[in-house]
Amino acid sequence: MEKEPITLQGLVKIKEELENLKNIKRPKIIEAIAEARAHGDLKENAEYHAAKEEQAKIEGRVIEINDLIARANVIDITKLEKKNTVIFGSTVSLVDLENLKKKKYKIVGKDEADIKKNFIYFRSPIGKALIGKNKKDLVTVTTPAGEKNFEIKEVEYI
């Protein structure tokens, strides 16, 4: 079983999602299925089929989260030695050398990745290009839109 790195915050977040699925969403969907069942003929009962589909999604996600928790390799970035090297869980400040725009990314696991929050998956093109690099290094990332060049301005362990 391959371990999946996850930050401490990421583990807390998926455990909260699991509790919500088990204690709130699961009972609601069971209630919705019972109610739809009471409406009679199940073959033509759209509410029943929609509820069963939702139940399957919830159960699938519960299994996925349980699997992730079982394989979790929790990385507490605050307890690691600080060396200005980009590692899993670190936050990296970059400058795009083409337009001089500043960007800041946190390197995280798959379940935590969220581009809106600038949380990037460590196996993504940018994540792979940054891991192991140091402050002041120049980094080239191959993206679908072509090559991008960055300079690492800061590496934080927060």
Structure, described:
Helices cover 39% and strands 26% of the residues. With 158 residues, the protein is of the alpha/beta class. It folds into 2 domains: 4-75, Orthogonal Bundle (Helix Hairpins), CATH 1.10.287; 78-156, Chitinase A, domain 3 (Roll). A hairpin with a 5-residue loop joins strand 3 and strand 4 (102-108). Helix 1 packs antiparallel against helix 2 (46-71). The longest helix has 30 residues, at 8-37. The chain is elongated, with a radius of gyration of 21 Å.
What are the defining features of this structure?
158 residues, 39% helix, Chitinase A, domain 3, 7 strands, 5-stranded mixed sheet, Helix Hairpins, alpha/beta
